[in-house]
Each structure stands twice: as C-alpha cells, then as structure tokens.
Amino acid sequence: MKNVLIFIWRYYFFFLFLILEGFSVGLLVDNNEYHESGYYSKLSEQTARIQDGYDQFFEYFRLKSINQQLAYENSGLRSDLKQSYFLYKKADQITVNDTVYRQQYVYIPAKAINNSTGKRNNFITLNRGLLHGIKPDMAVVNGEGIVGIVKDVSPNFSSVISFLNKKCSISAKIKNGDYFGTCYWEGGNPKEAMLNDIPSHAEVHIGDTIITSSYSKLFPEGITVGIIQSFDLKPGNNFYDIKIRLNTNFQRVTYVYVVRNMMKAEQENLEAVGQKEEEQ
Amino acid sequence: MFQEVISNSIRFVVAIALQVFILNELRLGGYINPWFYVYFILMLPLQTPGWLLLSLGFITGIIIDAFSNTYGMHTIATLFIAFCRPGVLKFLSPREGYEFGARPTIDFFGIPWFFAYSGILVLLHHTLLFYIEVFRLSEFFYTLLRVILSSLSTLILLFLAQYLAFRKKE
Q1: I need a surface site. Which of A86, A216, B40, B121 has the fewest CB within 10 A?
Q2: Tell me, which fold does domain B2-165 have in CATH?
Q3: Spatial distance between the Cα atoms of A82 and A126, rounded to a whole number of angstroms
Q4: Does the ipTM exceed 0.90?
C-alpha cells in the first residue's frame, strides 16, 4: 500500500493530468445532453452576461444594417396583410370564425449576443432564456430565413446550434414541389449548403427557392432556406446532389425569433403511441 | 515572487479578453482561427510546479470553452499542452540547463529556440482542438489545412506579443 502511494506521489503530475483530462472528456461527451443546472451552466451564464455587455456597446455600429433588415422584413409582412389582397369573388366571402384557426406557432423575439461562422461547429448565444419561455429544441429563424435550433437554456440566456453546425440538418423542399430532402452544411463557406435526397425524377432548376418542409417538427413550413445554385446527378444515382445558396447571412445574424410549436407535444405523444404499438 | 504572480495574472486576463472579445469576432473565411490564449500557458515561469501548471491549463481551457459555447474541447487541448510543456522544455534545454530566473521568451533564448518551443506546443494544441471539433476522418485534409494556417496565424501573434511585451531592457 505504501509503495503504491509512493508510486502515485512520484508520478502525481501524470495522474493529475489523467484525472483532469478525464473530466474534460466527460464534459465533451456530455455535450449531447442538456445541462440546465450544475456549475458549468452557471459559468456559461456568467460568460454570456459579459458578452451581452460587450455586444451592447458594439451594437451601435450595426444599427444601419439592422434597420435595413427590419425594413425588408416589414415590407414582406405588409404585403401579406389582408388589405394588400384584392378580393376576387364577393359572393364567396366567408366570415372567419376565430375557432377555425388555432395558433400553432408563437414567435419570441431575441437578440444574438455571440455568434461564429468560422468553425466547423458554430453556436449562437441569445439573450433570452427559460424565464422568457425558451426551451431546448425550439427553432430559431430571422427575417431572412432559418438560423438554428435551441440546445441549452439557462434562466436568462440560451445557446443555439447554428445551422452552420455538423449536428444541424433540416427537412426542406423545393417551393412549388412535393419532393422533400435533407438540408445540411458541409463546412467551409458560410453561404453555401447542400440538399440531398431529392429523387432524380423531380424537376429541379437553378434559382428555385428552397423552403422548410412540413415534416419538420421544429420549423414552421415555408421558412426560406435558400436558392439552388447548382445541381448534379451522378450516373447510377437516384438522388440529386444540390448545392444551395443560403438566404440567411449568418455573419450578420442579430435579431432573431425563437419559434414555439404549441402542438409539438401533442404530435410527439401521438407518434410515441404509434411507435409503442409497433414494438409490441 | 509576488511580482511574478501579479504579472502572470494580468497576462491571464489580457490573453483571454483578447481571445474572446477580438480574435473570436474575426471572420477570416473558416480557415484561419488564431487561438492566441495559449500565450498564457507558454509564458508561465520555467519553475512553475506541475500541479499549478495543470490547474492553470484546466482553468484557462474551461473559461475559453464557456465563452465559445464548446464543451471540453479547449479544456482537453490546453490541458494537454500544459502536460507536454515540461517535456518540450526538457527536450529543448540548453547544454548547461536552464539558469534560475530565466523565462521562456525570445529575449532569453533567441528566435530559433522560441520558434521551436511555441511551434511544437501550438501545433499540438491546434491539431487536438481542430480534430476533436470535426471528429471524423472524411474531412482529414481540409482540417489539416485549417490546423496549419491557424497555427501559423497564432505563431505570428505570439511573436508580435513577444516584441510588444518584452522589449530588451537596456
């Protein structure tokens, strides 16, 4: 026993290294789970606070481009207003009862206080958290299009997996088409992404708009992803390799909306029941 | 002794602030990410005891991790170079050994020595960091290019810092 202790003492440098490194590998592996409590989330809450202060100072320099984005988005919303539509047939007019339309998506505004695009796995920090109704797995969009998915939440901040991340892939489809595929980022250029699984008999044109599909549980249908830049059908392959130009400028993401799907739990419960029956 | 603690604490804060608030905000097309904060680990006094070296590497890594929303990546890489540092110093030691009070700077040991010292440790750190981040072999050469370009940019910053912070005392 004494010899063991002497041995450990002599090589304590190595053993201390092993223990600490083991702890850090644990942190890395735990990465897939949500940390809503614990020391680490307290630390990241503090760092997010510091970044918030830093960001508030530099926000003044970006006000011009933020304004432009907002004006652009407002013009889009304005053209969607009822007053902007010309009523064709007077006879068909139906009074809309509110009970027909139940609200499914709620948008919570938030501001990105930290963002990166240069890494293989990028993250965005938002200045809204648990106290504002944000929970893990909510979609994040802005006026231009998709942004990412919420991963961790602390009381006042939340950490978002940017679309520019290995872990983020989104179900998307060609606008005016029925075929859907998976959209993901390959790394490198923050303005380009790939769309796979569109079958070879689908009609694909350069310049077609790609939007989120209704198969996504997180994203509402019809959020812009980007436009087709080029496509390729390798001989013997049943699916297109489509390269798309992302609509969202990830290098300038500032004001975003976190999307809460109010019927997500209902849909998931129903699907879980179906899966359980299949297992039996 | 006391002066050493103060100057290293200042270096700790400055290196991390520079990394988090300025270098992390640079968007240089995905290939170049300088991780300058290793400067703090490189500049620790030669006589730093092992437990302190490892603890400081751990703390530095975890703070950078918390700021850049990565879990454990920087901690693993920084701890690893803290662990390798005594070995690298031994490997590069002059024939008569290190004199007391010497510091791992260009002033004391010259440019070739500092280049080898920081080059080895930065390359180890960046290789570990970038491959952990990607964690797949299919992007091997793309990642290798990123490691090399980022290491070069970090080294340039380290040399600049050396010339700015340690001017030869007349």
Answers
A1: A86
A2: Arp2/3 complex 21 kDa subunit ARPC3 (1.10.1760)
A3: 33
A4: no
